[in-house]
Amino acid sequence: MGRLFLFSNVDKAKLVDRAAWVWKKNKMTKKLNVLVTGGAGYIGSHAVLALIDAGHRPIVIDNLVTGFRWAIADEATFYEGDVSDSELVRKIISEQAIDAIMHFAGSVVVPESVENPLKYYNNNTAKSRSLIESAVSGGVRHMIFSSTAATYGIPESSPVREDMPTIPINPYGTSKLMTEMMLRDVAAAHDFNYCALRYFNVAGADPLCRTGQSTIGATHLLKIAVEAALGKRASVSVFGTDYATEDGTGVRDYIHVSDLASAHVIALEALVADPERSHTLNCGYGHGYSVLQVLDAVDRVTNNRLSRKFEGRRAGDPDALISDNIAIKERFGWQPQYDDLDQIVQHALAWERRLTDIQGT
Ligand SMILES: NC(=O)c1ccc[n+]([C@@H]2O[C@H](COP(=O)([O-])OP(=O)(O)OC[C@H]3O[C@@H](n4cnc5c(N)ncnc54)[C@H](O)[C@@H]3O)[C@@H](O)[C@H]2O)c1
User: Fold this and answer.
1) Residue 160 C-alpha to ligand 1 middle, in angstroms?
2) Is the sign of the CA dihedral 270, 271, 274, 276 positive or negative?
């Protein structure tokens, strides 16, 4: 008896759906011209490499407010400018025959969004509106959008699925959710489809050390930890030790930035293969590590001990935030390559050393 008989009708439907998509994807050999907004930043610069590695052609627009010109691969065409400059964006779309947009440009610091919400509603929401309008009027049919787990707020349970309530608890999350809503409505009204990827905690660096997290004053735990490991900081603060987790510190789902970049390339090809369909998908590994487990991993890799500074909880931090990643795996066949905390630490550390040489800090 064939194994298929053991599957339910729902499983069978999913298999047929996936097989159809793989067939369409395999047929697609066209090299795509992809406008990468924010391609000089942390995640965008990895996406540029992933596009080049997959045989596509990245064209970057970045205003360099937090990004670095040197972080953009030499093979990519670069335009310095703002995504809300519709004259420039329309010029790039026609000059470079843009097929799709990967939209990374944005502001990313949650506490800053609480202090200065209008900055976030401008840079993340209003400027995304302008970019989407340039895309639609310029005839670009596909967009991949950097969304975030912050759209969920404090989820009622973890792992969190895409269809669970989205109740953001800070302007950063709201600014991204509003852009997701615009994309949904625009896709319903125009020849346009999109994939909103809700990232969990992005970490690590390109395994070949071509780019990495270079943001000045970054707030990401692993970035802070590797800076401390290299003597750039005296200690690492641990905020809250009384969460409902095994060791009392917050648990997060850390995804290697190169796996995230590859998810974008797969999403791009899926959007082109099936232009009638849009997606909102979590991007994470589906399991997490506590703050102390991350610091222990850094200690293991460096064979040293970081100084930990225990502090009170920060407002609005959930106990655990873990993705349910079944949808992206089933729909796109996404297969993470670097789901290994020690390897993520090794890559982050290697990049931090290289950054010291580049920036001389
Ligand atoms: N880093 C994370 O853990 C994380 C998690 C969830 C979502 N995201 C989202 O991913 C995207 C990229 O994040 P990142 O960590 O690479 O940040 P980053 O600051 O390193 O990169 C953002 C890039 O966009 C550019 N930029 C910003 N506003 C612009 C504008 N108006 N016009 C042109 N360029 C502009 C910056 O100069 C920078 O190069 C952001 O939209 C962020 O909200 C990041």
Assistant:
1) 23
2) positive
CATH code, domain with 43? 3.40.50.720
172 included as an active-site residue: yes
| CA-based nearest residue to 321, from 348, 347, 285 | 285
Q: Are 113 and 172 in contact (CB under 8 A)?
A: yes
The single residue of 120, 172, 199, 285 carrying the catalytic annotation is: 172
CA of 219 to the centre of ligand 1 (A): 13
pTM of the model: 0.93
Pocket test for ligand 1, best of 37, 46, 104 (most atoms within 8 A of CB): 104
Count: domains in the chain:
1
Three-state DSSP state, 281: strand
**pLDDT tens digits along 153-175:** 999 888 999 999 999 999 999 99
Alpha-carbon span 266 to 260, nearest angstrom: 10
Q: Residues for the chain: how many in total?
A: 361
**Tens digits of per-residue pLDDT, 54-84?**
999 999 999 999 999 999 999 999 999 999 9
Pairing of strands 289-290, 251-252: antiparallel
Ligand 1 centre to CA of 233 (Å) is 24
What whole-number distance in Å separates Cα of residue 295 and Cα of residue 222?
Answer: 8
Look at residue 211 and tell me if it is in a domain.
no
Instruction: Classify residue 92: in a domain, yes or no.
Output: yes
Kindly list the strands in the beta sheet with 279-283, ordered across the sheet, starting from the edge strand earlier in the chain. Answer: 77-80, 57-62, 33-37, 100-103, 142-148, 193-199, 279-283
Residue in the structure block whose two tokens are 């917050």? 250
Q: How many CB atoms lie within 10 A of CB 226?
A: 32
Is residue 138 a contact partner of residue 189, using CB atoms and an 8 Å limit?
no
Which range marks the domain in which residue 38 is found? 8-202+256-284+324-337
Residue 94 lies in a domain: yes
Q: Is residue 79 a part of any domain in this protein? A: yes
* DSSP states along 211-238: -----TT---HHHHHHHHHTTSSS-EEE
Helices (H), 7-62: 9-27, 42-53
Best residue for ligand 1 mutational test, from 49, 65, 256 (most atoms within 8 Å of Cβ): 65
